[in-house]
Specification:
mainly alpha; 0% strand; 8 helices
Length: 167
Amino acid sequence: MHDDSKELLSCLPGLRRYARALVGERGADDLVQDTMERGWRKLNTWQRGGDMRAWLFSIMHNLHIDQYRKPALATEEMTEHTLQPSVSGDHSMHIQLREMDTALALLPIEQREVLLLVALEQMSYEQVAATLGIPLGTVMSRLSRGRERLRFALDGKAGSPALKVVK
């Protein structure tokens, strides 16, 4: 069990990255915590020798879908008087990241999940299919449509290269 615990903890950085990209900074920690808690509780159901990373991403996917279906909590609108954290470093990079985050948020969740798992987590199409429980062809079509929508959202035109990862 000790080795399994270490392997479970080694998956944390990827889970955090994916959660932040999927739900944003505010909900990411809760999603990761819920995923790790469920993974720890169900560690005895994980098949030894299997891909623990994909198994944990499947758990996160299912938790996210469950949360996505729940009614959203009320949020407070930000105004010019709302305190903002200071931004240091390259402001143009910050703006580009914010634009990318906004464009990703506009994608349907099915396309966003596939795009993030392939481009951000560098999973193979087969791993994504297994993680999300969908056919390989569905992974490829969602990825293609998601990339096209993302290109359009970022550039306003189709056909420009964005997040080009081929596996």
